[in-house]
Amino acid sequence: MLGLGVGFYKLAGNDYPIGGFAPDQIANLEMWLRLGNFTADFENASDGSAYSPPKTTGFLDGDRINKWIDLSGNGNHAVQTNNSFKPRVDTDIPGAVEWPSANSKFMDLESNSGNGFDINANTDFTAIVRFRALSTNQNALFGDSTGEFLRIVNNSRIRLKINNSATNRNFDLPSGTLQTDTFYTVMLVRSNGSTGTNEMYIKGGIYTDASGTQFTGSNLDDPSGPITVSNIGASANEQNEFHGWMKDVIIYNGTAVTAEQRELLFNYIESQ
């Protein structure tokens, strides 16, 4: 049980006051794109003009987001330099990054000269994203160096795929589970290293369990080899572009979060 007396959580042997937990208190944080922690450098209007320097507060509806700032300290900022392709601010969903249509594209990771970072798929890792999709058909949440890493295939399937190979794992949900009017937090956990398992936990809509509802990948090979995480919101080949909203994107490179940590993370993300 997480509660320790009144108003405290226990995590990895430490007590944290409710409201005091943050994702950077878990080891091996590789990337943390937090709700609202971005800059916008152009006004969204037919006669719009550039913001110099880019805005960090006081956003207008439709302002174009040029950088989503990584809070991990690793410099894995998500950027888009093409003004026509930049995601937007949606003042009706404060803090979210919106990809409203085919005109808004993915964001590249700025680290490693635009090549992103590597995850060893044979070791522990955790990938988390909170999203609401405009469509539940072929939306890539993360891209790797040659294809998608995590993708919404349809309204009842999410797929983990490694470097666009046949090595992948489908997570099948009841038919029609994913709805376009709902935010979901999806957490992919790889545990026990090279002999381990891949589990997906989801919270949102009909799924209300505090530490997420668990789904096990179906009847496909376990992923192996490196994952190069290079962009947010599309496959690396600019296919399967995501359209909708994202609020938080978090990756731990070397940590499979525990049930207690899952609950803390779900609570934190949904409270923003």
Task: Describe the protein's topology.
Elements: E1 8-11, E2 14-17, E3 29-42, E4 50-55, E5 64-70, E6 78-79, E7 88-89, E8 97-99, E9 107-109, H1 111-114, E10 117-120, E11 125-133, E12 139-143, E13 148-154, E14 157-161, E15 168-172, E16 184-191, E17 197-203, E18 213-216, E19 226-229, E20 231-232, E21 244-253, H2 259-271
Antiparallel strand pairs: 1-2, 3-4, 3-5, 3-21, 5-6, 6-9, 7-8, 8-21, 9-20, 10-19, 11-16, 11-21, 12-13, 12-20, 13-14, 14-15, 16-17, 17-18
Structure description:
By secondary structure, the protein is mainly beta. It has one domain (27-271): Jelly Rolls. Helices cover 6% and strands 42% of the residues. The chain has a 17-stranded antiparallel sheet that branches. The protein has a two-stranded antiparallel sheet with strand order 1-2. Strands 10-19 form a two-stranded antiparallel sheet. A hairpin with a 4-residue loop joins strand 12 and strand 13 (148-154). The longest helix is centred in the last third of the chain and has 13 residues, at 259-271. The two termini are 23 Å apart. Mean pLDDT is 83; it is low at 1-6.
Brief rundown of the structure:
The chain has 272 residues and is mainly β. It has two helices and 21 strands.
